[in-house]
Design brief:
alpha/beta, Molybdenum Cofactor Biosythetic Enzyme, Chain A, Alpha-Beta Plaits, Maf protein, 5-stranded mixed beta sheet, 16 helices, 42% helix, elongated
């Protein structure tokens, strides 16, 4: 079944709130065999809501809507849906009791605005929201279904998980199995990778699609199989994965559905080893990513943000002569930073970065975007130089990405040895 997603709220359009709802809905619907074909974010405007529904109806039999169900005047989704479906509002005692239960549980008193959320359309299925005050409504007309949910992510996710998906799966048995397999690729620009994979892509079976998902400095490849069974999808993806690994060799890594910091943590944990960072131009960004993963205390020991040369010298033991001769942005310095981190932090692995993020500080010999990274363990230090030459934010993010990918490459070698 084809699905369209509509997210409603002025806050989404002005960047005040990031629309995470549609991404979450898209993934869970796909996991359940539904195909998302359309997604749009619109403001709290009656004409825009109606136009969005009309457009979605032309593309999908199921429309999932979030947002605009609050008790304030700017939330107009419920009234607009009543107008669209030609129905009236009425007071629902069941909905009122559900809202009252939630308020009593939280030790709060209900006010008139919240009481009004018990006023619902009279020709739809009302699904009670057990974690919030705004009810979910299910409309049907002309073989199309529209389900309106609150915009609060926790409430939407509860309704999707425990009410909507079970009802949809019971009613609509999907005749297609959708399965994805994602990979991280390094060492290629998107256009160069497309050229490299041209013959591979031209010979894909009709049931499989290939997507390029570029990020700063790295690319994710996604193979999507649309088959009639899980076994058929698994066989197709296994064969294609083997072909990709032959074509791209060490430049491709599986587990692309996970972030590099999660994969790195899993590998470190499986090795029973630890890691620390010595960062200059990235200012602790790599440490922040590694520790954003739950359970990272199993393997992450600490970080030294060695922005000043004095810190590089006094704490990490970088040679003063090398700093003067080669500069802070050099192979010699970044490798000594990594070795120093191993020693000072007492870890098995160390990451180090030093570069000119910009916009100032560049020279003819070392322009803005010149970056050195290193990854070290007790046996070796591997360092690489990059010349990114983009904005400060992009230079930092590219450095983070490339450093983590180098770490993953070395961890893979360690696991294979």
């Amino acid at each position: 079944m084809d699905v369209a997603i509509i997210t409603i709220g002025d806050e989404l359009l002005i960047g005040q709130v990031v629309d995470t709802n549609s991404a979450w809905i898209g993934k869970i619907m796909n996991d359940n065999g539904f195909k998302v074909v359309h997604k749009v974010a619109i403001g709290d405007n009656e004409d825009d809501i109606i136009s969005a529904i009309n457009a979605a109806n032309k593309m999908a039999a199921l429309i999932l809507v979030t947002g605009g169900l609050g008790p304030t005047k700017d939330d107009i989704t419920m009234r607009t849906l009543c107008k669209y479906y030609g129905c009236n509002l009425h007071f629902s005692e069941e909905t009122y009791q559900n809202i009252d239960r939630i308020f009593i549980k939280n030790g709060r008193a209900m006010n008139e605005l919240t009481r009004n959320q018990a006023i619902v359309p009279d020709n739809c299925i009302v699904i009670q929201n057990q974690v919030g005050t705004a009810p979910c409504t299910w409309f049907e007309r002309d073989n199309h279904i529209l389900i309106s949910m609150p915009g609060v992510p926790s409430e939407m996710k509860w309704l999707m998980t425990y009410e909507i998906l079970p009802r949809l799966n019971k009613r609509f048995k999907q005749d297609i199995h959708i399965q994805h397999r994602t990979f991280w690729v390094t060492g290629y620009a998107e256009s160069a990778l497309a050229i490299r994979l041209s013959d591979f892509e031209n010979n894909l079976p009709s049931c499989v699609k290939l997507a390029y998902l570029p990020q700063l400095g790295i690319i994710r490849l996604r193979l999507s199989a649309y088959t009639r069974s899980e076994k058929e999808a698994e066989n197709a993806l296994n064969s294609l994965q083997n072909q990709l690994e032959e074509l791209l060799e060490s430049n491709i890594m599986p587990d692309g559905d996970k972030t590099p910091e999660v994969i790195a943590g899993e590998k470190l944990r499986s090795l029973g080893q630890t890691i620390g960072t010595a960062e200059s131009c990235t200012g602790g960004s790599i440490a922040a990513l590694l520790t954003s993963v739950s359970g990272s205390s199993d393997y992450f020991v600490g970080s030294i943000v060695a922005y000043a040369n004095a810190v590089k010298q006094d704490i990490l033991g970088v040679s003063e002569n090398d700093l003067k001769k080669y500069g802070a942005v050099s192979r010699q310095v970044v490798e000594q930073m990594a070795k120093g981190a191993l020693r000072v932090l007492g870890c098995n692995w160390a990451i180090s970065t030093s570069g000119i993020a910009g916009p100032g500080g560049g020279t003819l010999q070392k322009p803005v975007g010149t970056i050195w990274i290193a990854v070290a363990n007790k046996n070796e230090v591997v360092s690489k130089e990059y010349c990114f030459n983009t904005t400060r934010e992009q230079n930092i993010q590219r450095t983070v990405n490339m450093t983590l990918m180098l770490l993953l490459e070395m961890l893979n070698q360690e696991l294979l040895s």
